[in-house]
TrEMBL record, chain A:
The keyword Kinase does not apply. Keywords: ATP-binding, Cell membrane, Membrane, Nucleotide-binding, Translocase, Transport. Coiled coil: none annotated. It holds the Pfam family ABC_tran. One of its GO terms (molecular function) is ATP binding. Gene3D superfamilies: P-loop containing nucleotide triphosphate hydrolases. SUPFAM superfamilies: P-loop containing nucleoside triphosphate hydrolases. GO terms for cellular component: membrane. This is Phosphonate transport system ATP-binding protein. PANTHER family: AMINO ACID IMPORT ATP-BINDING PROTEIN (PTHR43166), PHOSPHONATES IMPORT ATP-BINDING PROTEIN PHNC (PTHR43166:SF6). PROSITE patterns: ABC_TRANSPORTER_1, ABC_TRANSPORTER_2.
TrEMBL record, chain B:
It comes from the Bacteria. PANTHER family: ABC TRANSPORT SYSTEM PERMEASE PROTEIN P69, PHOSPHONATES TRANSPORT SYSTEM PERMEASE PROTEIN. Keywords: Cell membrane, Membrane, Transmembrane, Transmembrane helix, Transport. One of its GO terms (molecular function) is ABC-type phosphonate transporter activity. It is found in: Cell membrane. The chain crosses the membrane at residues 29-48, 99-126, 155-178, 210-231, 243-262, 268-286. Belongs to the binding-protein-dependent transport system permease family. Residues 103-286 form the ABC transmembrane type-1 domain. This is Phosphonate transport system permease protein.
Automatic annotation (TrEMBL), chain C:
It is a multi-pass membrane protein. CDD domains: TM_PBP2 (cd06261). It is found in: Cell membrane. It comes from the Bacteria. SUPFAM superfamilies: MetI-like (SSF161098). It comes from Humitalea rosea. Gene3D superfamilies: MetI-like. The chain crosses the membrane at residues 28-44, 88-112, 133-155, 190-212, 219-235, 247-265. Residues 81-264 form the ABC transmembrane type-1 domain. Belongs to the binding-protein-dependent transport system permease family. Pfam families: BPD_transp_1 (PF00528). This is Phosphonate transport system permease protein. One of its GO terms (molecular function) is ABC-type phosphonate transporter activity. One of its GO terms (cellular component) is plasma membrane.
């Protein structure tokens, strides 16, 4: 159970996330939608503590995540893996090492610094890669992979962390439709088969409806809607955003497009 | 047809001409101001450094004579004679074995100093990179510290270290290493500041500590750059190592200081020629190595 | 799990570490490196005792440096600083002036004779290998102690490098513009004067200013071998162990270098704008 209580983040004058409260049971797949600048990324980054909240609390199974420091914080980050729009792999390292990065917090510092991973860890990483049909690319450099492949490597890395929660920030915004489907299927698989809680930022309402158990719509840092896909009707969208669905898509696409897309 | 062409283009030419004249006027003014500043500066500098055209002129014959004397007196007939034959190469380089050994020592001093200094830079560069530094205070401290290390010339360090550590290569190596730590530290930190932080977020979000994120997210990206800087600094340090001996800090410098001070004319040119050859071959080697490494690790990301 | 390790090891052996040959070469490389390191550390006498004694000596020196003090001969110090700056300025000016014709000589598109150019380049490179301090020492023997030797040393050491940089700058611009002048019926000399010079002059000026900055640093130490400037003062103070004055001079040196960098940077930007930043 992930509880978010009055979570707020201000950047100077601007309030990116404003008094957001959500309660997410374990194993749920939640889609967060909203226009560019709605605060979706900020919300997810706060959950992983990559961004510090200005106020409010995050509780996971009763533990106050916002109070964590040092090793405890790193342990929390390991338990809530993050996936990014730009994949954020180490481009110059091979795929296998990128996946093994997910184990860093589970092992002794010195051997990590020296890059000495055990055979068991390597097999585990290959297993994770194999799940997404990438075992054969394990020794290639990450920058030789297509965008869709890189995102799947990122998911494999996330799984290596053996997390309870997966936070995915626009995981398919840089991908073509075919790769987008592969990646979303992978996320669903992780949610259904491994029972992980998945929070995924999306700008496409149809994708959110298709894959998620629950949709949270944000606007200007606030949660405007929280319910099942069925409840998010066309009228509801117009009510929240003042535009119809087609226009909403157009604006949302606009927002993610300028961030350079990686060729598939 | 040519007439039509002419009438077509002439207004353009007219405006172009006017602009050209205006720009020219401005340039003239700038030149005048520059001369008005430059000439007094030159006069002042000449007065302070006692370098008048007349003194330089008077010095020229002596300079000519000096460098003429330095040149070896080789004769074609005996060019390949033994060390005892005047006019032979062997006579000119009669102490070549000792000098080569000293050059070898100098190169090793430079290599060790570059290694030690760069190791320090590598450790300090991460906190000294603005985008990674754990806190602004640490950033300022390390950055300013590196700056201080860099600003003091090697030879000043060498002078002081010869007092502290005694005469010998040890003082020279530490002096060069300290300066290198500052110089490379700044370059390393700047290379790190130019990296993409996506991978950093990736490693941090996976629970990697600051040190591990430096190791896995940043180091692979900057490594080719760092190796390049390392080798370039090695080239620079060979030159430095050849002169720290002037103040007793080891290497071929001490020998060179002696032969120059005691006016062993031909030996001066012999040693300098050896230094030039050594520096040139090391430059060549290091350039090859740089290209090979960049080729293998891929160009700077 | 171990079963899966074995299957994966069979399928992708390279993922489980380097091959035997790779391991051997790597080990060999490390061994050679460590042997070299041990050898030079021993050769250069990096013994704990010596390091310890040196560091404690250094500690004493640093304690004696505080507080820095100008001592009684502060006029001499100021004179030394002025002398250093003047040496750097004059030396740079002279070498920058002489380097212009040399640069044209070295540029590939002006002198077409490849062999001549090749040998000129080699000479340039040769000069670069000789440290300024060596030139300074030689000139002290030739023209005597004093700043003139320093000026000449800076001039000689820089001339080759500057000429080389100038040659490259000329090569970068030559083709495009001088063709225009020649096409308009200009002579080869006119092509240089009107086609090349206006374009390369700002670049040359910027480079000369960079050299002035770096020469200020080196002029500060040429005095160590008697070639004038503040270096002489610092060497003397160290000889008589007036560490507080040494510290004072070092601080003054750092400030001077900083001020010169600042002024030169300003002039560079003022004279040539952003073009001065163009890496050549
Ligand atoms: N590091 C930051 N510094 C200053 N302002 C920020 C920062 N990060 C985000 N913001 C601001 O906070 C607001 C919310 O940003 P956020 O990235 O969370 O939106 P988003 O919903 O993810 O939008 P997008 O679809 O464009 O990714 C925006 O107005 C943004 O400008
Ligand atoms: Mg976002």
């Amino acid at each position: 159970m992930l509880q978010i209580q009055s979570l707020t983040r201000r950047f100077g004058e601007r309030t990116a996330v404003n008094e957001v409260s959500l309660s997410i049971p374990a194993g749920q797949m939640v889609g967060v939608i909203g226009r560019s600048g709605a605060g979706k990324s900020t919300l997810l980054r706060m959950l992983n503590r990559l961004t510090e909240p200005s106020s409010g609390r995050i509780l996971h199974d009763g533990m106050d995540v916002t109070a964590l420091k040092g090793q405890a914080l790193r342990d929390w980050r390991t338990r809530c893996a993050m996936i990014f729009q730009q994949f954020n792999l180490v481009q110059r390292l091979d795929v296998l090492t990128n996946v093994l990065v997910g184990r860093l917090n589970h092992r002794p510092l010195i051997s990590s610094l020296l890059g000495r991973f055990t055979a068991a860890e390597r097999a585990m990483a290959l297993e994770a890669l194999d799940r997404f049909d990438l075992a054969d690319q394990a020794l290639q450099r990450a920058d030789t992979l297509s965008g869709g492949q890189q995102q799947r490597v990122a998911i494999a890395r996330a799984l290596m962390q053996q997390p309870r929660v997966i936070l995915a920030d626009e995981p398919i915004a840089s991908l073509d439709p075919r790769n987008a489907k592969v990646v979303m299927d992978a996320l669903r698989d992780v949610n259904k088969r491994d029972g992980l809680t998945v929070l995924v930022n999306l700008h496409h309402l149809d994708t959110a409806r298709e894959y998620c158990d629950r949709i949270v719509a944000m606007q200007a840092g606030r949660v405007m809607f929280d319910g099942t896909p069925a409840e998010l009707t066309a009228e509801k969208v117009r009510e929240i955003y003042g535009v119809d669905e087609a226009e909403f898509h157009e604006q949302a696409e606009e927002a993610v497009r300028p961030k350079h897309t990686v060729a598939a | 047809m040519s007439a039509a062409f002419h009438t077509d283009i002439s207004p353009v030419v007219a405006t172009g001409e006017a602009a050209f004249q205006a720009a020219r006027q401005q340039r003239r003014l700038a030149t005048l101001v520059a001369i008005a500043v430059l000439v007094p500066c030159l006069l002042l500098a000449g007065w302070v450094s006692e370098a008048w055209p007349s003194t330089i002129w008077a010095g020229l014959p002596r300079i000519g004579e000096y460098f003429w004397r330095i040149l070896p007196s080789l004769s074609l007939d005996h060019l390949f004679g033994g060390t005892k034959t005047e006019g032979s190469l062997a006579f000119w380089f009669y102490r070549a074995p000792e000098w080569l050994w000293l050059l070898f020592e100098t190169a090793n001093m430079a290599a060790l100093a570059t290694l030690m200094g760069s190791a320090v830079s590598l450790v300090l560069a991460f906190p000294a990179a603005r985008n990674l530094s754990p806190s602004p205070l640490i950033y300022q401290l390390t950055r300013r510290g590196l700056e201080a290390l860099r600003t003091v010339p090697e030879i000043v360090y060498a002078l002081i270290f010869v007092w502290a550590f005694g005469v010998g290569a040890l003082a020279g190596i530490l002096a060069i290493a300290l300066h290198t730590a500052g110089a490379n530290g700044k370059l390393f930190a700047e290379a790190i500041e130019n990296t993409d932080l996506g991978a950093w977020d990736g490693v941090r979000s996976a629970g990697g500590s600051w040190a591990l994120a430096c190791r896995y997210a940043i180091l692979p990206q900057v490594l080719p750059n760092l190796i390049s800087y390392f080798l370039l600094r090695f080239e620079v340090n060979i030159r430095s190592a050849s002169v720290v001996g002037f103040v007793g800090a080891g290497g071929i410098g001490a020998e060179l200081y002696q032969v120059i001070s005691f006016n062993y004319y031909e030996e001066i040119s012999a040693i300098i020629l050896l230094i030039i050859l050594a520096v040139a071959s090391i430059d060549l080697l290091s350039e090859r190595l740089r290209h090979a490494i960049i080729g293998r690790l891929g160009g700077p990301a | 799990m171990s079963a899966s390790i074995e299957t994966w090891r069979a399928r992708l052996p390279a993922a489980f570490g380097a091959t035997r040959a790779q391991v051997m070469t790597r080990r060999l490389g490390w061994t050679a490196f460590l042997l070299w390191l041990a050898a030079v550390l021993w050769w250069f006498d990096f013994t704990p005792v010596r390091l310890w004694n040196g560091l404690s000596g250094l500690g004493v020196i640093i304690v004696m440096m505080i507080p820095p003090s100008p001592g009684e001969l502060w006029v001499e110090i100021l004179k030394g600083i002025a002398e250093s700056v003047a040496m750097a300025f004059l030396g740079t000016f002279l070498s920058a002036t002489v380097a212009i014709p040399l640069g044209f000589l070295g540029a590939g598109n002006v002198v077409t004779a490849t062999l001549l150019r090749f040998s000129i380049r080699r000479v340039f490179d040769g000069f670069r290998g000789v440290d300024q301090l060596i030139w300074a020492l030689a000139f002290v023997r030739a023209v005597g102690l004093g700043p003139l030797a320093g000026v000449l040393a800076i001039f000689t050491a820089d001339i080759a490098v500057l000429a080389k940089l100038y040659a490259e700058a000329i090569e970068n611009v030559e083709r495009r513009q001088s063709e225009g002048v020649i096409a308009a019926g200009g002579s080869k000399l006119a092509a240089l004067r009107f086609g090349v010079l206006p374009q390369v002059l700002p670049v040359m000026l910027a480079q000369a200013l960079y050299f002035f900055e770096s020469n200020t640093r080196s002029a500060a130490i040429l005095g160590v071998v008697g070639a004038g400037g503040i270096g002489l003062q610092i060497a003397e103070r160290i000889r008589v162990r007036h560490w507080d004055e040494v510290a004072f001079i070092i601080i003054l040196m750092i400030i001077t270098v900083g001020v010169i960098d600042w002024i030169s940077g300003k002039v560079r930007r003022k004279l040539i704008g952003e073009r001065g930043r163009q890496p050549v």
